[in-house]
Every structure is written in structure tokens, then in C-alpha cells.
Amino acid sequence: MTVSRTSRAARASGLALALALAALPALAQSSGQPLRLFPLPGQDERPPTAAPQPSQSPSPGTLPGSATDRAAPAAPSQTGPLQGTPLQTDGTPSLRVPMPVPVSSNMLPAPTLDSLGTAGQGFGQDIWNGTPRAVAQRLLESLPEMPGSHTLHSVQRRLLISPALLPPPAAEEGPEGTVLTIRAQALREMGALDDLSALLDNLPRSAQSEGLSRLSLETHLLRGQDDQACAIARNVGGTYGSAFWRRAQIVCDALARESGRVDLGMTVLREMRVPEDRAFNRLIDAVMGHTVVLDSLPAPTALHLALLKAANMPVPADAVADAPPAVLAALAKSDYPAAEISIAAAERGLALGIVPAERLAALYKAYPATPAQLAGAIAAAEKKSDIASRAHLFRLASEESVPLARTEAIAAALRIAQDSGDYAATARLYAGLIAGMQPTGEMIWFAEPAAHALYAAGKAEEARPWLLAIRDRGRFDEMAATAWLRLWPLARLAGDDTATVWENTALEASLNALIAARPNEGPARATLLTALLDASGEPVPSTLWRGWLDGPYSQATALPSPTLWFALDSAGQEGRTGETLALALVAAGSEPLEQVDTVPLRRIVQALRQASQPEASRQLALEAAIAHGF
Question: Which has more confidence, 544 or 90?
Fold first, then answer.
């Protein structure tokens, strides 16, 4: 059984229909009273919310929002309104929507093949409770191939490996194992090779299908496990008639140097009249001892990589640019390709979230460099950013024993990455070095870029010492006080209640500074930042938006389909965890966070919190803020 993933347009149409049909039974089970779409006159349609904390004025010499500054409640801030309108501090309900209590709506069956997963790493067995199997299956089919966010990549990976129970399939929903195959294919498309391998290793022998067998074979090849891959090709390859299985058998015969079987297999492949794969044919010749030149491989597969390694041929330079994530991860983690190929693959893989920063760091450290190249690494990287200059700069930062010189190298790397659009990945790469340093007096100039990079890497705990150093200096240093106002919203998004507290005066000061720095874009950016704070659970005053009502009042914004939006609201409010997470992932799609607008971002962050994932909600909000340049 092979489950193919259709185009996004077709999947969206089918998903909308499935969600609409799934809603009908709930309406039919109502008590017979008319369904009220709007509140009666005099009814308040807003849910009750807790009042925000009272604003506190910082004492002289202190900074707004600093945890050490919290004292007895003081009078509301008199520092001035935002764009002519003061913050609400009189107990008016905030914009926060109370999270619902999940309810169980159906009994789930015993574990089955489709409920196989990785224990302790997913979201639990009951996440699809209350969701019809057809809807769950359609949602899993509709997940983006590669989420545009590290946080959402992690959420999707955990969703796919969850050992979640589903009702037995109806006749039209395919046999048992259909959902497992969908999940496994999605993991491969994401480049999650380790998770895919762990999932497939747990399969009972009786559970193999064509789709699962192919995934197992390709995963073994990408992990360098040729013997296990060829055992699958020998055992089940003859059962299936597609060109893939003929080529897989030919690869295994070539690896065994069975020239007669290779020739027979190539003859059969030609008689099938399938589209020719010239790179495959050349690599087979190379493995069998012929002199072959292969200078281009724009779409490498697991079969190609196995043959390249067996023929001891270099991986063509263009193999990295368009490699699918699973192949990219294999190129980055294998010791076989040339250093430049592995580094290029690891750099792209780190940006996508499929290669750990530690792997790229190890490759950079192993890259050759002379003392002169290391001494001139900063100047060379500022002149031209390429693999050599980035590797030399990282080596300089790693090997430099003088703390001040190390900070200069790291600051240069972050600055160059900011200009080239690679900041988030570079921050993750250097986070380990920054976390091992202390914010001493001579390095106070580095405190803001250090803290910001650590927030970008998702390391709020490690950022705290740098933030505290800024706070302490900000009591008497205007530049440090301004840096505090820039970092305070990020610290709140990260959930840092140790170094910061929520104060309306701190929000007011931060947003005023933001608007003053970029007057033309300030209100729109302030709206985005405030929306992220609100969605992640901070008590943003509900009247804050009045200060930005000068227009414009319309803008072109890409939004998911209304059906998807309404379905997300329903699933989140009724506590259907798996459905809420999947709908949020589908709504986010593959777009990078910097291309996602305020309204959908706010709703997706809220959805993660509704699905009882507050840490992921905050991390996504923080990641989005940094992606938008905060």
C-alpha cells in the first residue's frame, strides 16, 4: 500500500469538506433548541477574563519591568500616553481568551498498527479523542512538508511520532496501517530520519506494506545501513512491480558486484519504458568498474547516495541546493562527502531545523585553517561570506582564549548573519559559545547581542545573566536602559519571570521606544509585538489598540481558508488536542515566520496554548518576534 500526498490545493479542498461533514453530527445531537449564532440583545458575548495587574511606576533609578523593582502597588504611570491614548489600568478585562478545559467525547479503542509511536516523546495516546478518524487522517495528509518554523517543526515531529489511538477504519478509509504510512511519509519529508527509523523499527513483520517497506529501505540507505536495506529488497522487492523496486534490486546487486544480475536488471528496467535516470545509470556503471564522470546531481535520492559511496565518487556540488530534507540530513551527518558538501548540507539543515548546531560546529572546527587565516577571519568574513570564511570565523571564536577577542569574533558573525538573512541559524550555532561566557565589565557592550542571540536560539535561561547585566547598568546608563526596553518584550515572550515582571509601564515604555525608532512602521510593528504578547498569555490591556486607530484600516493579508479558521476555533475551544495542533500546523503552512502576518500568527500562537502547549506557544511567539526583526 502506497499513500501519495496530493497537491496543497486538492488537500485543502478535501480537508474543508471533511471538517464540514464532521461538524454535522454535533449539530444533530443538540437538545432540539434552535442554534443561536449571535447573542441576544443585552447579552455579553465576551467570555469573562481576569483583570490585568495594576501598573506600577518604577522607583527612581530603576527600570520598568525589572523583577527587583517590584514593590507595593503605586499610582498608574504618568509618563504619557501611547499615540495619544493611555494604557488601560482600571481593571478592564484584557484581550486574553481563557483556555477551555478539554472534555472527553468518545471512547478510544485499544492500540493498533496505526497507533504505533515513540513512547515519551509525543503528545500522548488520547490527543485524537473526539476527532473522527476521517478528519484526523485528512489533517495528517495535509500537514506541510516542511514547517517554516523551528518550533512548529518540533510540534509536527512530536505529533507524528505520538502513539495516539484512533477508531478502527471504515471501508472507505483504507486498511489498518494507512495512517501509520501517512505519518511515516511525513517524517521522511521533514527529514526526521532518526524518528522515522525508530518508528519503523517497531513495526511487526506482518505489518509491512509497499509504502512502509520502501520507507524502511530508503531510511536504511540514508543511514548507511546497506545490508538491512538490501535484505528488504531481496525479501519483498519482487512482490512489487514499480521501477523503484527494480532499481533498488539493481543497486543491491551492484553493491554485491553481481554483474550478471545487474545486466539483467537493467534490461528489465529498459523494457518497463520508465523515464530514464541518467545519473542512476552512470553510477551503476561506476560501481561496476567503468570510468564515469558525474558532475551534476540536482535531485539526489537514497539510491544515488548509496551508489556514490560504493563507487567512491565525489558528491556533485549541486546535490545540496535542491536535495530533499531526508537526503540533506544524510549528507550533513555522513562522513563520506567532502567537507564543503557536508558543511553546505549542515548549514542548510540547521536553518531548516533538521541538523543540530553541534554537527555544524564539529564540521567547522575540522575545516583546515592556517594561523594567518584565523588571524584575518573577521576581515575575510566581512569581505565575503562563504564556507571557508564562516568556518574560519567559527574556529577563531572557538579557539580564542582572550574573552574580549572571542566576543568580537562572535559579534562579527552575528552582524554578518543579520545582513545575509541567516541570523537565526547563526545564533543557534554560536549559542553554546555565548552561554559559556560571563558578562564581565569589559564585555558589557556585548550584553545585548549576546542576550538577543540566546533568545533566538531558544535559550532563555542562558540569556538571563546578560539581561541582568543590562538591567544593572541601565540604572545609570541611558544606552543600557534603551537596550533593556528592547529586550524586555523578548524576555516576557520567553516566560522569564525571574528577571522581569509584567508592568504596563514597561510595555508602554517599550512600545514608545519602538515607535520612536521607526515612526513610519512603528504602529504596525507595535501591533504585531503586542499581539504576540497577548497570544502567549501576557495580560495586555484590552484598550491598548485604541492608540493605533489612525489607519490605514485595510491591507492585503494572506489568510487560511475560512473553514480552516472556524475549525481551529472549534477544536481549540472544545479541547481536541490533536485536531487543534494539526489545524494550527496546516494554517501556518511552510511559509517562513517573517512572511506570516499578525492575525494568523496571533491565532496560531493561541492555538498552541489552547492545546496545553504553553512552552511551545511562547517559543513560537518569541521565534516569530525575532523573525520579524525585534
Answer: 544
Sign, Cα dihedral of 617, 618, 619, 620: positive
For residue 243, count CB atoms less than 10 angstroms from its CB and return exposed for 0-12, middle for 13-18, buried for 19 or more: middle
Kindly report, residue by residue over 213-251, the tens digit of the pLDDT: 999 999 999 999 999 999 999 988 888 889 999 999 999
Q: How far, in Å, CA of 338 to CA of 315, rounded?
A: 7
Among the listed residues 357, 444, 338, 439, the one whose alpha carbon sits nearest the alpha carbon of residue 398: 357
Q: Is the pLDDT of residue 44 over 60?
A: no
Task: Quote helix, strand, coil % in the chain, to nearest 5.
Answer: 60, 0, 40
Task: Tell me the three-class secondary structure of 238-287, residue by residue.
Answer: HHCCCHHHHHHHHHHHHHCCCHHHHHHHHHHHHHCCCCCCHHHHHHHHHH
Question: What is the tens place of the pLDDT at every residue in 94-124?
Answer: 444 444 444 445 555 667 888 888 877 889 8
Residue 5 near residue 211, CB atoms below 8 Å: no
How far apart (Å, rounded) are the C-alpha atoms in residues 560 and 8? 12
Kindly report the pTM of this predicted structure: 0.83
The Cβ-side half-sphere exposure at 224, using a 13 Å CA radius, reads: 10
Q: What 3-state class would DSSP assign to 191?
A: coil
Give how far the C-alpha of residue 99 lies from the chain's centroid of Cα atoms, to the nearest Å.
23
Distances (CA, A) of 435 to 283, 407, 410: 46, 12, 12
